[in-house]
Design a protein that fits this description.
Structural class: alpha/beta
Order of helices and strands: EEEEEHEEEEEEHEHEHEHEEHEHEHE
Number of helices: 8
Strand content: 15-25%
Shape: globular
Strand order of the largest sheet: 7-8-9-10-11-18-19
Helix content: 10-25%
Low-confidence stretches: none
Length: 332
């Protein structure tokens, strides 16, 4: 009897689906690539043909130029070789998807990156019961339990209210995190202009084009210091302590990331105000998802694989580590 999932092969450079002759999130150019979402550690240019959601293809077009591909809407099923392939929401960023593979009476779900809590910028995670669930483990340690996002946003707004003569400079990745922060701020009643670094502009425009209303955004570059006092400024994390930030009016430096749970990371980045806002599932959400889907096997990709594997094995769930390479923290 063939081993469960014997028709897909995890390799360091991605997951190869043999009966479809296609790769999922390959790190090298391939003839056929199925892409879960637009972050650069999952979506790379150079493939001969790309299958992804319309939003992900738009993001890839923005980053790499026009992509030779085909858009697959949520819930749509396509046939590649001998495999039925569908894309369902992952709740990670705009257009992010889990890829559902059905072949030989088996169903395999490749989650990509995902989170379970609400996000006003993207469709929520959709649970799909399956035989094999391939999960990330970015925050796959019990120490990672993310607080309520609303509480972190309220802390940010209170700090702004208490320091009207200063600005708050928030480090946020250009795809997903920046737009989510803006929408979370709007949801907490902050409708003032938000100033953004030029590196965030194009993707914010793309989100607007796909129906995510971000409110009034203004470029932070070339603005007088006095205009920025009492406002929030968003910039890529690399700009927090760069020469660019020195022209801001006594900024309070913040960083929005699940990694801000680790004080050492905050200190290393000279972050005065850590904001624990993550676009990945935390430990409780990872384990809740596995319980909910009740797969026969769990395969674990990038992150803290060993702890999640141990959790599965102690609950009689067969688990294995895939040891894929090239997946970074670009999105958190």
């Amino acid at each position: 009897m063939a081993r469960l999932g014997s028709w897909i092969t995890p390799r360091p450079e991605g997951i190869y689906v043999k009966p479809a002759d296609a790769w999922i999130d390959p790190s090298q150019p391939r003839a056929v690539a199925l892409v879960t979402h637009g972050h650069a550690d999952h979506a790379r240019g150079g493939h001969a043909r790309v299958f992804a959601t319309p939003e992900t293809l738009a993001i890839m077009d923005c980053r790499y130029g026009p992509q030779p591909g085909a858009a697959v809407a949520y819930g749509e099923t396509i046939r590649l070789g001998e495999v039925d392939v569908s894309f369902v929401p992952a709740g990670h960023v705009l257009g992010s998807a889990q890829i559902v593979l059905e072949h030989a009476g088996e169903k395999i779900v490749v989650s990509g990156d995902y989170k379970r809590r609400p996000d006003p910028t993207c469709a929520p995670f959709e649970p799909v019961p399956c035989d094999i669930f391939i999960t990330e483990a970015t925050f796959g340690l019990p120490v990672f339990r993310h607080p309520a996002t609303s509480g972190e946003i309220d802390r940010l707004l209170q700090r702004l209210h208490d320091n009207p003569e200063r600005c708050i400079l928030v480090g946020a990745y250009a795809l997903g995190k920046a737009q989510r922060l803006i929408m979370e701020l709007r949801g907490r009643g902050h409708h003032h202009p938000i100033y953004i670094h030029g590196a965030l502009q194009r993707l914010c425009e793309l989100y607007e084009e796909w129906g995510v209303p971000l409110g009034e955004l203004r470029p932070a570059t070339g603005v007088a210091k006095d205009e920025l006092r009492g406002h929030i400024v968003l910039a890529p994390p690399g700009q927090l302590n760069d020469r660019w930030s020195r022209r801001l009016p006594d900024p309070i430096t913040a960083m929005a990331s699940g990694w801000m749970r680790v004080r050492q990371r905050a200190r290393q980045q000279l972050v005065e105000m850590p904001l624990i806002v993550s676009d990945h599932a935390d430990w409780d959400e990872l384990t809740m998802t596995i319980r909910e889907l009740a797969p026969r096997e769990v395969w674990i990709t990038h992150g803290r694989e060993e702890a999640l594997k141990h959790w599965c094995m102690t609950r009689q769930i067969k688990a294995r580590e895939l040891n894929l390479v090239g997946y970074e923290d670009e999105d958190d």
